[in-house]
Amino acid sequence: YHNVFSPCEIHHMLSGGRRMGEMFVLGLCFLHHRSGRNDAEVVSRDHNQRRFEMRYMPEKSLLEKTRDLIQVQA
Hints:
Blueprint: E1 9-12, E2 14-15, E3 18-19, E4 25-28, H1 30-33, H2 49-55, H3 59-70
């Protein structure tokens, strides 16, 4: 982990191109959310869902992990 100020942006998960609702959101920093980067350091979710999920994990798994960390049940 880097000691860098990186505000969280809300990423709304999609199904069929539509937002799934306010309970289906991930907190991502700018670089991982909408920077458009796809390099050795970062894969941005913006327009690269498949590459993002290959590098990190499926969005649904990230949502489950987030809910576990903050102890929220949907």
